[in-house]
Amino acid sequence: MSFAELEQRIGLKLPEDYRQFLEHHREAYLPNTQVFPLGEQTPIGETGVLDELKTLESFEEDGIHLFEDADMLIIGDNLFGCPTCLSLRTSSFGHIFYYDLQQRVFWPDSQFHSMFVNLAESVTRYLESKAAGELPAKESGMESFYHVADSFSAFQALLKDDELPAE
After folding, report:
1. Which of 20, 54, 133, 157 is paired with 95 by a 20 to 30 Å CA distance?
2. pTM (2 decimals)?
């Protein structure tokens, strides 16, 4: 697949930093699972996980996947099914977001406590902030998207190898 085909299908020109990435990485890119900090309080913790970054080859093989209601292009994935997305929205064009596939933002607190015996401190703080009405409002359709970076380049700078704890 070419840049022109990809851009024609999404109806927009890609941000230059993401275009450069695609130009230099034609085949599968990540040798190891990567982690990155999430840029806001979330019901999924403080860290996102990335096992694959899409390339032109993978767009060709797997297809182009969009969250059309949110104007998000899926550019990465992980084994948990939580994709990393490039915003195509005018207000946040080129920003990177992480999507919570389980949409835990809509879960009642009791569901967290019944499913997870030992909630992470960051999730407990999120639930407390939510109960106190202290979380910032989100645009409709963006409730389960969590901001990571203002650009693809800034996102790349955040990526770190996932280091499993020593046994």
Report:
1. 133
2. 0.92
